[in-house]
Amino acid sequence: MSAIKNIKLIGLTDNDQMVFTSLLSLLSFKTDYKWKLTTGDNDDVLIVDVDTAEGQTVASQNEKVGKHVIRFTAVQPENNQSPYLHKPLRAAEILRCLNQVSELESTAPVVNSHNKTKAVRLTRWPPKSVLISCPGSSRLCAVLMNHSITVEKAASMAGISLNDACRFVDACTAANCITEKSVALDSSAQAQDAARKNTTLFNKLRIKFGARA
Amino acid sequence: MSELKFVITGTAGVGKSTAIASLSDTPPVITDADTTDELSALKETTTVAFDFGEVFLDDDTVVRIYGTPGQERFRHMWEIIADGALGLVILVDNTRPDPLADLDIYMDNFVDLISQTGMVVGVTRHDTPGSPGIDQYFEHLAQRDMCCPVLEVDPRDKADVAMIMDTLMSVLEFA
């Protein structure tokens, strides 16, 4: 139970969120990963209430970009392949779902095909279709625009999950707007990481301007 | 109250006022006058001083977004407007005869602001037949030894304007 995974709740009622939070805390010693709730875009797993049209759309969109989605529903989905969580919330159901996700993670092909010692760099800003496939993509692009840097480091600097960053870099590679080199890492980028001070302000501005996380 | 300032520039009729209106918390200040030159074929009025919108970030911080007059004959206003700005958006109308030359005009005139902060280029009406593709914009920037985001944008679309501003924030934060 070493790795930490972030879980995000979407569309759940305040009561369900409260119940889930309490049960997750109680179950923490029984799960493969240490699960933490997040409201940011660093989620590894989403729990989405799919009993609304909006919820179904959110779930489908996130599954399309390769995210782990647990469907929270009062009816059993026809496709039992994807993890789903029955309403009302029960501890055993949550445990079953989280362990199912853990199994999927351990058996899934490794998304990150990028060697950790290799640095990547954007050769051009990706097309809009690639950008909208990954929340936080503009931050990742800005990191990769002027520096050769590992995906892991870039993900950390941009504040998005490594899996999302790897998928995004794969999409950029397919769109022919990234290069991968075995070069010494750009120390200025590392220095920037330490020097970054205004994250809160920029995030506030983004939210105010109505950007996607 | 502290003030943060951003500037949106570009040719007349490209959509600067529209973009500011979509961002502003208050009805934007518009300094339009009737068009009297060849622009009158395209639009009835044009910005002669600046457009100005406000976004209230919190109790202590206001973001002011200025749109420059597009026509070059008002370029004396550009330097005044750029003073103290934190970042620049250049909107380029891809239906104009030479949009890459238009881009050069704005990059040359805002060179100090760009070197000190950051910029994003938004290309409007990007799918106009016979007009430069996005790749040509990147090549053009590379010839000037510049690397910056170039995005297709429709200023009438709030999501597009939000994406441009999100990109500018990322450039300022990380690049």
Describe the SSE topology.
The complex is a heterodimer of chains A (213) and B (175).
Chain A: E1 4-10, H1 14-27, E2 34-37, E3 45-49, H2 53-64, E4 68-73, E5 84-86, H3 91-107, E6 119-122, H4 128-131, H5 137-145, H6 151-158, H7 162-174, E7 178-181, H8 187-195, H9 199-209
Parallel strand pairs in A: 1-2, 1-3, 3-4, 4-5
Antiparallel strand pairs in A: 6-7
Helix pairs in contact in A: 5-6, 6-7
Chain B: E1 2-10, H1 16-23, E2 32-34, E3 45-47, E4 51-58, E5 61-67, H2 76-82, E6 87-93, H3 99-109, H4 111-116, E7 119-124, H5 134-143, E8 150-152, H6 158-174
Parallel strand pairs in B: 1-5, 1-6, 6-7, 7-8
Antiparallel strand pairs in B: 2-3, 4-5
Give the spatial strand order of the biggest sheet of chain B.
Answer: 4-5-1-6-7-8
Instruction: Provide the β-strand percentage band of chain B.
Output: 25-35%
Instruction: Please state the overall shape of chain A, judged from the principal axes of the Cα atoms.
Output: elongated
Binned, the helix content of chain B reads 25-40%
Uncertain stretches of chain B = none
Secondary-structure class of chain A: alpha/beta
State the order of secondary-structure elements of chain B, H for helix, E for strand. Answer: EHEEEEHEHHEHEH
Radius of gyration based on Cα positions of chain A:
18 Å
State the helicity of chain A in percent bands. Answer: 40-55%
Q: What is the number of strand segments of chain A? A: 7
Number of helices of chain B: 6
Order of helices and strands of chain A: EHEEHEEHEHHHHEHH
Average pLDDT for all residues of chain B: 86
- Main beta sheet of chain A: strand number and arrangement? 5 strands, parallel
Radius of gyration of chain B: 15 Å
What does this structure look like?
- The complex is a heterodimer of chains A (213) and B (175).
- Chain A has 213 residues and is an alpha/beta fold.
- Chain A is built from nine helices and seven strands, in the order E-H-E-E-H-E-E-H-E-H-H-H-H-E-H-H.
- In chain A, the strands form two sheets. A five-stranded parallel beta sheet of chain A has the order 2-1-3-4-5, sandwiched between helices.
- The model of chain A has no long low-confidence stretch (mean pLDDT 78).
- Chain B is α/β, with parallel strands linked by helices and 175 residues long.
- The interface between A and B is medium-sized, with 28 and 30 residues.
